[in-house]
Amino acid sequence: MEKTIDALFAAVVLLAIVATSAILAIELLNFVRTDTEVIATYQRVNAGVSLTIEVPGLNKFDRVYLILNATTPIYNMTVQPRGVLLPLPLDVEGSEVDVAYPIMMTKRYFFVANTSGQAKLVIYPQPKTPYAIKDLEGKTSFTVFSYVENEEECIGISIKVLKFRENRFAQVILVIPFDELIQPDFQVQGVIKVLEGKVAYANLIIMTDIDWYAINVISDATQPTTISFNVNAGSPELFDRTGEYLGRRGMYLALGVGLYEGHFTTNESPQATIAIGNITIINGGKIMTVPSKALYEYDLYYRLYIFRKFQPTHEHVVLVSSLVLEVVVFNYIVIKLWKARMRK
Amino acid sequence: MQLLKGFSRIVKKPVVKSILAIALYDALIFSLFLITDPNTLGWLFDDKYVLTNGLAHYVDFRPGYPPIGKLPYTYLYKALGSAEIIILYNLVTANLTLIALYKLLKGIASRRKAIALTSIVAFHPVFIWAIIFNPHADTLALFWLVLAIYFIRARRPLGTGLSIALGFLTKIYHAVLLIPALFLFKRWDRIVLVSSFLLIVVLISAPYLVSDPLMYATTCLHHLSRGPSESIFALLDGYYSHTGFLHPTFEAMIYAWQFNAIYTPSNIDHFNYAWNNPHLRHISFILQVSYLLLFSILPSRIHHEVETTRAVALSMLSYFVFSPFWNPVIALPTLILLILATPHVKIAFNVLALICLAAIDLLHLATWSPATPLGVHMGLLTVVTSRALLISMTLYMAGKTMR
Q1: How many domains does chain B have?
Q2: Which range marks the domain in which residue B61 is found?
Q3: Distance in Å, alpha carbon of B279 to nearest chain A alpha carbon
Q4: What is the ipTM of this complex?
Q5: Which of B21, B176, B249, B276 pairs with B400 at a CA distance of 20 to 30 A?
Q6: A18 part of contact set with chain B, CB < 8 Å
Q7: pTM here?
Q8: CB contact under 8 A, A338 and B371
Q9: Local structure of residue B250 (DSSP, 8 states)
């Protein structure tokens, strides 16, 4: 008789477990249905003139994610009112760089709402270039400008090192999307001018779907200089993997510009100013030219995501506590009945 | 003299011998760690991010492992911040795995064979790599796997349910073991198996189910959008990159479906992968499920302990070998499952197969170093093909001796 009562009780508790789980699932599904808000739009901007992005209807702990095109660099960004959104450091698996394939051509900012309400993001844009300019080693700040020499327009970039890496180098990469199979006639031609400061090296980096390959084009330029380069399948690669990238899928091409701490005295500001002329890429008989023009007026496209964060209510706490209790009771009865059967 | 005799008598005792062997092994591995001085803490970048920014795992941030697999490392890192303590923890879990494996093998094969096979596992380069380079729960996950199979073999549902639950809360894949176990256990045993599994999962998960069940669920759900890697399916699909793929750490602060909203699937992004040939994914899944079910149904029809162990090992092996997602460390269970699936095979064949597997795994690891002689493309093709051949051959031998 006692066993029958226990078995009945177990069945009732099991029903309660199913019911509690169902209520919890419905509660969570209702939350998930409306947990993402996206604003995808653009604004006409002038380099150097601020623009404002409104972040509406925030709840505390919501996550705010702003995605810009990385070819539209910005000087800096501020949050108004101050402290409403807390920025989280950009960190790609332990290193402070945003160099990863899925985000290569985007610039991402991530915030956590510190309070409910509204916020504004004030952005100070720089001139737009065809390149995504990113730190690869160390930390830098850069300024983009238009540089004209002998009626030839170039993209000027002034790089200032804020922090060298432990190896005493800082490297900035200028990335363009490629996304093609690399053919035997692959060639990259171009001109780089070192206008000011000291450049330890400049490499052409071929980023394929499995690895990166670097070919040196400038080495130890401590005086103003102009270098014309022509990289092809026969150009020696830094790890002796010359031409290994042929037949691979080239995802991006980049110019890596490195500065070395040892080149600068303690009184000297570690910086370099370079100018990049037209770059021509030949692959599979096709010729592509990367323009050397910095745009001061352009459309800034962005996507703003507001991701809601689940906050437990009293009802939710009661539901989970009930579920835990029900599972414990069910387990107790089941084991009791099982032991009784074993004894038989 | 008497003292020496007494000492030698003590040393000859099996328990003391085992303890001495383990101590020697630990000293050897720890010395290897000290000599190679790997950047073990570098892998704990997510813990560093969480601790630096005052976040909490499973509430603000989704790590890749469930709580038992992740939190011991987080707390050890937070408390002491030294790689040595992490390696000692790994050594403890590795010792537990080896002891459990030896006990299990001794029940299904001769003592000599149990010692030989356990030693090969202990000195397998990937097993050592997992101890000294890897602050992830691979060795602990192996322990729960072996323990669960041990309890299944002994037909003890409570122990099976508890170890599968603890394994699930360490590295998820142990939940697959529930399928053969459900077929094997009958009536009340089956209910006890499920209820004990649920009890442990719910009790340990309770704090996170209260705080944010969606972030907690994301720990598992996030893996569903991952692509293939380093397997036949990956190579057939044209993905030649490795298992991980660089991503911003803060992406782990949003739910899995929110992550999918900001990262369009792509055939170069392992974490949100778009298959070039989606049929490959289905083929992999169908193979996994059909072989898993086939070998899960078998133990319910056989009553011999050895055959039960083999069938359960083969069912888990199906899950791993047909998985599109592979790398030597993730696939460590394959090593143990292959041993458990072939207890009748001659010891020489076992040893040879395991040595070959170790060589293939070493070549696999070497594939990722720059300027490897074969190159990534050829290197991966070589290891994937030779591993498939070796596993097929071993399973063929196992089939030939199946009762």
Answers
A1: 1
A2: 38-400
A3: 22
A4: 0.85
A5: B176
A6: no
A7: 0.88
A8: no
A9: G
